[in-house]
Amino acid sequence: MSEFLKKQSEWQQQASSSDDFKVQVGRPQSDESWQQLALDVKQKLNLVQSDSLLDVGCGSGLLLSKLAAQCATVSGVDYAQAMIDKAQQLLPHSEFYCGEATSLKFDKNAFDKLLSYSIFHYFPSQEYAIEVIKEMIRVVKPGGVILIGDVLDAEFEVVIKSGSNLEYEQKIPYIHRYSQWRFYDLTQLQAAVSPLVKKYEVLSQPSDFALSAYRKDIRLWL
Ligand SMILES: C[S@@+](CC[C@H](N)C(=O)[O-])C[C@H]1O[C@@H](n2cnc3c(N)ncnc32)[C@H](O)[C@@H]1O
After folding, report:
1. Whether the CB of 79 sits within 6 Å of ligand 1
2. Is 80 in contact with 8 (CB distance < 8 Å)?
3. What is the pTM assigned to this prediction?
4. What is the DSSP letter of 153?
5. Does some domain include residue 97?
6. 45 in any annotated domain
7. pLDDT digits (tens, 9 = 90+) for 132-159
8. Ligand 1 within 6 A of CB of 101
9. Would you say residue 207 lies in a domain?
10. 139 ligand 1 Cβ < 6 A
11. Which domain holds residue 93?
């Protein structure tokens, strides 16, 4: 089985491993941390009540559920069917479907805002990430905003990976192994994407967020 399919199947298992929506997406933090995360995302996306919002890699929909009251409609896509089932359970009136981030089944200019949080480090390559970003740009209206959250900065790759116990890693799923995470050369990513958008910004996460030292949020203005 390819690494891509292995990760997809592990997310499928992770979604079914617990009834706790936080555990399903691998972020078992306090309710307070989740509220802070939702607030940070809401502000960075500049969400307003009339917005249609798409979440790519929505997982069990917990983050989206905390944003749903701030906009008109929310929709989600994830490549693990079990995640989609959980998200649909949490937000029964919203539209969800199982699919890959490179191929979104929506028309051009379908959404005002797009969120994709904590999924880019599971991608197979930087080229794949750029393909995903192009697809995101296609489905967001001119004047819209895309927020790609939790992008791992390659400047910290050696430090993070050398701190990992490789023997222990053999016992845990691929998706939780630091050695398997993709870090991004943020300068290269910016050079590839900024010609496609009106404005490209690299934003910091609040310093009290776990792991914020090496995770950045990328905001694209269309
Ligand atoms: C860490 S979870 C994050 C879930 C949610 N965005 C959040 O922040 O709570 C990562 C999610 O990305 C999904 N995912 C990873 N790679 C994907 C891809 N290439 N296409 C679609 N979904 C993907 C996984 O199935 C998983 O649900």
Report:
1. yes
2. yes
3. 0.97
4. B
5. yes
6. no
7. 999 999 999 999 999 999 999 999 999 9
8. yes
9. yes
10. no
11. 3-38+50-221
